[in-house]
């Protein structure tokens, strides 16, 4: 049975190629999709074919692409493969596109994920020509049942001049009721407080709205989300997870947190997922989550009854996790709520709810500055994603990483980070497999002592200590945050020169 029950929109049914033909060279295109869930499966591939044909004729055909976050090979991979992107925002994890960005071929705007929608509304990115949005169904009255992510869909649907809908029958029809789309947002000076005081509170509608007169094509698809197998937690991830869970225990005992903790946010990656695994066997009950991505670990906690509910903007499940969700969709209704990413990651809400934020990092420095996005100062890995939205405003934040990278050639604890995403003013707790450094309320000098002693790998500890001692001695009048400017990034320079820090 067709998922398109609105007679007006049913008349706009088209093939993916016909829909792709409505995108013009130079257009800005907003698509659905967040961490591999809910991206359009057919039209971008058809668009890539058109671009390929145009290139073969010697014509230029590139677009600017705005998404929620990462998509799948059928979007970023396909469009990067034909050099079809001139601009991309606000997050990417596709390796082919990463190469083009780092080669300087694609302009990448690496924005906080909660900022993208409002910056589009402010007009910072210019006009949005086309939106291509995947949904689970179109209701008789034209309302849209969203899919497995909400991301920036509401904003793209409202801002775009033309809208293409992909109605994917692979998505469970039972997704109806899983969403809360907030329609109360405005731009300054007309903003009002967002009246959300509990992670699961509904403040919006279960459906997305679209102006039918803008809908130029409705394409039917039947294709799965991308689902990357999760790395099994290794010994280091398990060690970090154990440190983190024990620290939470300590915070409860000290009276700084209720026994059921505060709403959890966990970033993508195997260590944040291992933390969720650690919580499975810990004593905490009645947990809640206010996060952006639902990984397998959160499903495990829901299934075990440890976690009562989770608010997010998308799924990011492994094949096994996805199957588990699909097999039991109904049982998760009322316990899982998907919101737009400007709400799931909203600073006002993260701060009000007192979120505990757990995110991966690339490196940290001795004073507690954290780099989440760049390798050796210049090359982007993925982007800042939602880590800044959550960390800056969290009640308590954690950044986790192995103490070594590239087989020990790189220390993840360095004198000065080669790029800063989270400043020393924002960062609370650093964790590596070596230990945990609680930096709250410490001066830079005390932070350096603690980070070196607890988080740095023993192979690099003495050299870090030596750096701080010499920096302190060098300028007695500048001992607040002592640095040797000629050497501060010398470890990175040595790696680029010699392959070892
Ligand atoms: O590179 O793949 O070439 O080997 O970085 O490292 O150890 O696999 O780490 O998968 O947990 O990702 C920060 C990237 C960590 C991630 C980051 C190299 C390492 C490897 C990946 P290779 P690991 P993880 C919610 C929150 C920002 C967005 C965010 C991230 C690669 O957590 O993207 O937090 N965070 N969003 O070899 C040079 C170092 C290195 C290093 C690791 N010190 N120097 N390279 N690597 N440490 C989700 C969203 O917002 C959508």
TrEMBL record:
Active site residues per record: 292 (5-glutamyl coenzyme a thioester intermediate)
UniProt family annotation: Belongs to the acetyl-CoA hydrolase/transferase family.
A Pfam family this chain is assigned to: AcetylCoA_hyd_C
Keywords attached to this entry: Transferase
Signal peptide start-end: none
Annotated positions binding CoA: 362, 382, 386, 406
Classification via InterPro entries: AcetylCoA_hyd_C, AcetylCoA_hyd_C_sf, ActCoA_hydro, ActCoA_hydro_N, NagB/RpiA_transferase-like, Succinate_CoA_transferase
Domain Acetyl-CoA hydrolase/transferase N-terminal, chain residue ranges per copy: 9-220
Location of the Acetyl-CoA hydrolase/transferase C-terminal domain: 321-467
Domain of life: Bacteria
MF (Gene Ontology): acetate CoA-transferase activity; acetyl-CoA hydrolase activity
GO biological process: acetate metabolic process; acetyl-CoA metabolic process
Protein's UniProt name: Succinate CoA transferase
């Amino acid at each position: 049975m067709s998922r398109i029950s609105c007679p007006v929109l049913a008349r706009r049914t088209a093939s993916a190629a016909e829909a792709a033909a409505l995108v013009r060279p130079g257009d800005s295109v907003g698509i659905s999709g967040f961490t591999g869930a809910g991206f359009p499966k057919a039209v971008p591939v058809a668009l890539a074919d058109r671009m390929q044909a145009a290139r073969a004729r010697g014509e230029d055909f590139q677009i600017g692409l705005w998404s929620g976050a990462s998509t799948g090979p059928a979007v970023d991979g396909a469009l990067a493969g034909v050099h079809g992107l001139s601009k991309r925002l606000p997050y990417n994890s596709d390796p082919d596109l990463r190469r083009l960005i780092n080669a300087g071929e694609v302009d990448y705007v690496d924005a906080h994920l909660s900022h993208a929608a409002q910056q589009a509304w402010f007009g910072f990115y210019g006009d949005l020509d086309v939106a291509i949005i995947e949904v689970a169904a179109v209701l008789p009255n034209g309302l849209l049942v969203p899919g497995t992510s909400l991301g920036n869909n509401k904003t793209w649907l409202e801002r775009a001049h033309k809208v293409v809908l992909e109605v994917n029958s692979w998505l469970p029809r039972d997704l109806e009721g899983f969403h809360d789309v907030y329609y109360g947002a405005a731009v300054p000076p007309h903003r009002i407080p967002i009246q959300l005081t509990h992670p699961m509170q509904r403040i919006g509608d279960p459906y997305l709205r679209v102006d039918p007169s803008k809908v130029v094509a409705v394409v039917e698809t039947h294709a799965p989300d991308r689902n990357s197998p999760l790395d099994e937690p290794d010994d280091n991830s398990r060690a970090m997870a154990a440190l983190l869970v024990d620290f939470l225990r300590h915070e409860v005992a000290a009276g700084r947190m209720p026994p059921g903790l505060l709403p959890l946010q966990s970033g993508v990656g195997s260590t944040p997922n291992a933390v969720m695994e650690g919580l499975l066997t810990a004593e905490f009950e009645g947990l809640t989550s206010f996060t952006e991505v639902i990984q397998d670990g959160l499903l495990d906690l829901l299934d075990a009854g440890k976690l009562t509910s989770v608010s997010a903007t998308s799924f990011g499940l492994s094949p096994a996790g996805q199957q588990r969700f699909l097999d039991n969709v109904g049982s998760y209704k009322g316990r899982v709520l998907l919101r737009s990413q400007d709400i799931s990651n909203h600073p006002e809400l993260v701060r009000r709810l007192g979120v505990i934020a757990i995110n991966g990092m690339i490196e940290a420095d001795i004073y507690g500055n954290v780099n989440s996005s760049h390798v050796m100062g210049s090359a982007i890995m993925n982007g800042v994603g939602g880590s800044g939205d959550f960390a800056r405003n969290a009640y308590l934040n954690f950044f986790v990483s192995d103490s070594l990278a590239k087989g020990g050639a790189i220390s993840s604890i360095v004198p000065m980070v080669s790029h800063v995403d989270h400043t020393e003013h924002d960062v609370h707790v650093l964790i590596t497999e070596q230990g945990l450094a609680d930096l709250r309320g410490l001066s830079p000098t005390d932070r350096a002592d603690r980070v070196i002693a607890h988080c740095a790998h023993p192979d690099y500890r003495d050299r870090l200590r030596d750096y701080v001692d010499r920096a302190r001695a060098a300028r007695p009048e500048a001992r607040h945050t002592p640095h040797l400017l000629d050497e501060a990034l010398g470890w990175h320079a040595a790696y680029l020169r010699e392959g070892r820090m």
